[in-house]
Design brief:
Elements (H helix, E strand, L loop, with lengths): L3 H14 L7 E6 L3 H16 L3 E6 L11 H7 L5 E5 L8 H5 L2 E2 L5 E2 L2 H8 L4 E4 L5 H7 L4 H16 L1 E8 L4 E5 L6 E3 L9 E3 L4 E4 L11 E6 L2 E4 L2 E4 L4 E6 L2 E7 L13 H21 L7 H8 L3 E7 L10 H4 L5 E7 L11 E7 L1 E7 L4 E6 L2 E2 L1 H4 L7
Parallel strand pairs: 1-2, 1-3, 3-6, 6-10
Antiparallel strand pairs: 4-5, 7-8, 7-20, 8-12, 9-11, 11-17, 12-15, 13-14, 15-16, 17-18, 18-19, 20-21, 21-22
Helix pairs in contact: 1-2, 1-6, 8-9
Length: 392
């Protein structure tokens, strides 16, 4: 038998977040790591208790640059009703999909069968949990989802007609994020309809900035002072990482303390981020040369390794910044930016590296000159703190 907290959390995920129906097929992919395996088994137990069918596959732990096992890709091609990726790090890339992208009914191409099932065909519901731990699972899953969904819905709607978003912080962040024509997306714990999916723990609203070109795109400075995801895993940031952004792309990475990022100090956090990016740039070119990326894509993937791919805002009151990005990016009093691939599928990259900014001031700007203050120095706007049903 599993810990009661585990059982309650698993039932919350399967019954409430996913709305599982008797007879539905559920595919669970996990790793040998004892914690994620135990969480996966608790979810399988909940699926079976609710009358679902479940297949569980255990593959070796994958990093951002690794491929998923072929058995995992094959299982996803069976089009399960629900998919759980309960991983120590990542699910893994789709080698076949990168070389021969899937074309969705929406006209977009997808380089992973997971994205094709979820977004292209909308034949699947999904939850993914990179870096999940038992403590996080028990502590941050059983929350007030009605309140969370109201907050997320309101904030996402506020993003939809925006022209730009400015983010500043006492730590030094000062950036303009163009979002005209982009839509706010949400991870609100409601994964009950085909094509819906997100993280557990849930709790963020996010948007893909307009991809930059000369004279356009994100402009300014991001100072990551919370935590950072890297190719080798997530870290708490002790020495803030300063990224200069021009025309939508990171042009320089420095350490706030002045430490050198030339590789002479392997523990320098700014150097670790720079290395993760340069590794992705190099891998993109190499994979095209090896025939693992279609001709011409190597340069595009290389370029987008420095793209600002996401601005996200944390809305889960039970989440904390502890050096695990799955939870950190959902925490109150934070926002996060991602470097690499975006969520509008027009900036493909081998990486998506999230970094947390503490206590930001976030202001949404509109065409008519009006503004909406999302939060000030980390404190949510009153309308978001206590959203009213009549707002929707």
């Amino acid at each position: 038998m599993y810990h009661r907290g585990m059982k309650n959390a698993a039932l919350t995920v399967v019954e409430q977040a996913c709305g599982l129906k008797a007879g539905e097929r559920v595919l669970i992919v996990t790793n040998p790591n004892p914690e994620v395996l135990e969480i996966s088994l608790s979810l399988q137990e909940a699926v079976l208790a609710l009358g679902g069918e479940s297949v569980l596959i255990v593959q070796k732990t994958k990093t951002l640059l690794d491929y998923a096992d072929k058995a995992v890709i094959a299982a996803l091609k069976t089009k399960p009703d629900v998919f759980f990726s309960i991983s120590e790090n990542k699910l893994g890339k789709d080698e076949e999909g990168i070389l021969h992208p899937y074309l969705g009914e929406d006209g977009k191409s997808y380089d992973h069968i997971f994205d094709y099932n979820l977004e292209g065909e909308k034949s699947m519901r999904a939850i993914w949990t990179p870096g999940i731990t038992k403590d996080m699972f028990k502590r941050s899953v059983c929350i007030d989802y009605d309140l969370l969904q109201k907050r997320c819905s309101l904030l996402a709607s506020k993003c939809n007609d925006a022209v730009s978003i400015t983010v500043t912080s006492s730590g030094g962040t000062d950036i303009i994020v163009p979002v005209k024509g982009r839509k706010g997306m949400l991870d609100d714990g409601n994964f009950t309809f085909p094509g819906s999916g997100g993280n557990i723990p849930a709790g963020e609203v996010f948007i893909s900035p307009v991809v930059g070109s000369e004279g356009s795109g994100c402009q300014g400075t991001i100072v990551f002072d919370g935590s950072m995801s890297l190719n080798e895993g997530d870290i708490i940031i002790n020495d803030p990482i300063v990224c200069q952004v021009v025309d939508g792309f990171v042009t320089s990475i420095t350490s706030k303390s002045g430490k050198k990022v030339d590789g002479s100090d392997k523990e320098c956090e700014a150097y670790k981020l720079l290395r993760s990016i340069t590794d992705a740039e190099k891998a993109a070119v190499e994979r095209e040369a090896e025939g693992k990326l279609a001709a011409g894509l190597g340069k595009e993937y290389q370029r987008n390794a420095r793209n600002i791919g996401e601005l996200g805002i944390g809305l889960n009151p039970a989440a904390k910044v502890e050096g695990n990005m799955l939870e950190d990016e959902k925490a109150f009093h934070t926002c996060h930016f991602a470097i690499g691939q975006n969520y509008d599928n027009d900036a493909p990259s081998l990486i998506h590296l999230d970094g947390v900014v503490r206590n930001p001031t976030i202001v949404i700007h509109y065409e008519d000159g009006s503004e909406f203050v999302v939060e000030k120095e980390g404190i949510l706007s009153p309308i978001l703190e206590n959203p009213k049903p009549t707002t929707y």
